[in-house]
Amino acid sequence: MFFSINHKGINRCKGFRNFFQFIKNFPFQIFNTILATPDNKIIIVPNGGLSTGITENYSKEETRRVDWVFGIAYGDSYDKAKEVIARLLNNDSRILTTPAYFIALNSLGDSSVNIVVRAWVKSPDYWDVFFDMNEKVYKTFTQENINIPFPQMDVHLKQD
User: What is the pTM of this model?
Assistant: First the structure.
């Protein structure tokens, strides 16, 4: 069985997930596939493993869903946090309107109320949107007095 992967892309093969491109100036390798990562590493993957393993291709489709989980402190307003996140998503032209984004209370964690956010973007915009939205949420939550908690533990010392 033969399959092909584009010469450039984002894939996960045999535990490696990264942007990569096939090395074109190497001679044909019957036993190995040679990949180059963006930080200039060369990865040599035996073809046997590639042909029997699962390959996930992150760049083949035109759109991808970005997932975030934002934690807010217990006692802070979930509705206010949801409104802030929705406003940030609506103001980012890279967020696709179809399918619509999704915001929901995901879980009540040990230290935070966790809000899950899912939005669709064009595949080339994925990482820029992911990192930009993390920064925007952090800064806007601070401006809006919505607290992002951190895990903490109370230790009680017992004296004899």
Answer: 0.73
